[in-house]
Amino acid sequence: MMKGCQNECPAGGCTGGATKQASESFKAADLIINPATTFKEKPDPSGLVFGTVFTDNMLTVEWSLTSGWEKPYIRPLENLSLHPASSSLHYAVEPRGETEENLVPMVWLNEYTLFEGMKAYRGVDGKIRLFRPTLNMDRMVRSAARATLPCFDKEELLECIRKLVEVEKEWVPHSTSASLYIRPTLIGTEPSLGVKKPTKALLYVILSPVGPYFASGSFNPISLWADPKYVRAWKGGTGDCKLGGNYGSSIYAQREAMELGCQQVLWLYGEDHQITEVGTMNLFLYWENEDGEEELATPPLDGIILPGVTRQSILELARKWGEFKVSERYITMSDLTAALEENRVKEMFGAGTACVVCPISKILYKGKNLHIPTMENGPQLATRFLNQLTDIQYGREDSEWTLLVS
Ligand SMILES: Cc1ncc(COP(=O)(O)O)c(C=O)c1O
């Protein structure tokens, strides 16, 4: 078993061990495809609310400690039937709705639930592409290890996902400002109240067409609330994995941000109020640093930052361009306020699969509104990243970062 895998994974390791893992994972070659025979109407992507419409089919694979992985299935999307003691339904955070009047259905999220978020894009040439999907598979396997859920062969899951998207290809929007969101999920399903490693699990993948993140077609900058009273992640915790509990517990702070007139939370950490992430995005600061150097900075992967696919892509592009310093470094609120007073900040933006990049124009901190001059500065750099990444995703530029679905 590889170091770091605490779930006695029969697959022999979660971080890429090819041999034993491959033989004990489910296999895409065993996929049983019994697709839906009735079809839902496909919506106009411009009017979609994120994550509310789902395609006709889903992928499911069951696992148990005694039998290992069963064969994967592509089958009509349907409700899950779970024992009420299922481990993924307990030891919980109860997220609440945005307002008391608008409570979301009560859901329980905990460390027996993990997920990924990736997209399929229909290119200008009509071909469907995934963007760096192996990075999502790597992250999902790391999350599985952290959640004591079973490991699997990343390539086999990716091939199953590719097949699912192929079956559902008509659901990939015919638009270069929309896409098909892919949500791989892994949950513990053991019918037991014991707080222990589950002996049963279910991996499933559902698909949801999503419209343009920026409805106007151009950047809409966001305002942030920065207050150390809520913490998204901590050293030794699970913030660097995509576990359900990280997200459920953040909704309360998000609601307070909105009550204060801000759109997202700027997550701070530690006595010195380090800037970590924004909402569910990684954060970038483009500025003239303390030494007078032009720098693109983002916090380092020290255990409390989710290693975003977009973050990694932005860092790699910027390093390839070689036009300014690119750093993974700590940035505190006092670094930022000093730079704002000295007019050294050029742009601040969030980065993630949902929007690629999202400009930041205001931060409410210690009762004061800090104006961030991102929009006044173009935003030149954020726009360049947006164009470069979407050119790759929609096939306007050839890249090794894409995987063809069909
Ligand atoms: C906490 C957090 N940070 C950053 C990201 C961005 O990651 P990615 O670029 O892989 O979408 C996400 C998105 O899933 C996230 O949930």
Protein architecture, described:
The chain is of the alpha+beta class. It is built from 8 helices and 19 strands. Helices cover 21% and strands 26% of the residues. Strands 1, 2, 3, 4, 5, 6, 7, 8, 9 and 19 form a 10-stranded mixed beta sheet that branches. α2 packs across α3 (154-167). It is globular and about 60 Å long. The chain starts with 18 loop residues before the first helix and ends with a strand. Pyridoxal-5'-phosphate is lined by residues 117, 277, 280-282, 306, 308-311, 352-353. Residues 117, 277, 280-282, 306, 308-311, 352-353 line the site of pyridoxal-5'-phosphate. It is an enzyme of class 2 (transferase). One of its GO terms (biological process) is L-leucine biosynthetic process. Homodimer.
Quote the average pLDDT: 89
Cα gyration radius (Å): 21 Å
Q: Count the helices. How many?
A: 8
List the helices and strands in order.
HEEEEEEEHHEEEHHEEEEHEHEEEHE
Assembly context of the chains:
single chain
The total strand number stands at 19
Tell me the structural class. Answer: alpha+beta
User: Portion of residues in helices?
Assistant: 10-25%
- What proportion of the residues form beta strands (DSSP E)? 25-35%
Q: What bound compounds does this protein have?
A: pyridoxal-5'-phosphate
N- to C-terminal separation?
A: 36 Å
Model regions low in confidence, pLDDT < 50 over at least 5 residues: 1-23, 92-110
SSE order and pairing:
Elements: H1 19-24, E1 32-33, E2 57-64, E3 68-69, E4 73-76, E5 113-115, E6 118-122, E7 128-131, H2 133-146, H3 154-167, E8 179-188, E9 200-210, E10 222-226, H4 244-248, H5 251-259, E11 264-269, E12 274-278, E13 281-288, E14 294-298, H6 309-321, E15 325-328, H7 333-341, E16 345-352, E17 356-365, E18 368-371, H8 380-393, E19 402-404
Parallel strand pairs: 1-4, 10-11, 10-17, 14-15
Antiparallel strand pairs: 2-3, 2-4, 2-9, 5-8, 6-7, 6-8, 7-19, 8-9, 11-12, 12-13, 13-14, 13-16, 16-17, 17-18
The structure holds pyridoxal-5'-phosphate.
Pyridoxal-5'-phosphate is lined by residues 117, 277, 280-282, 306, 308-311, 352-353.
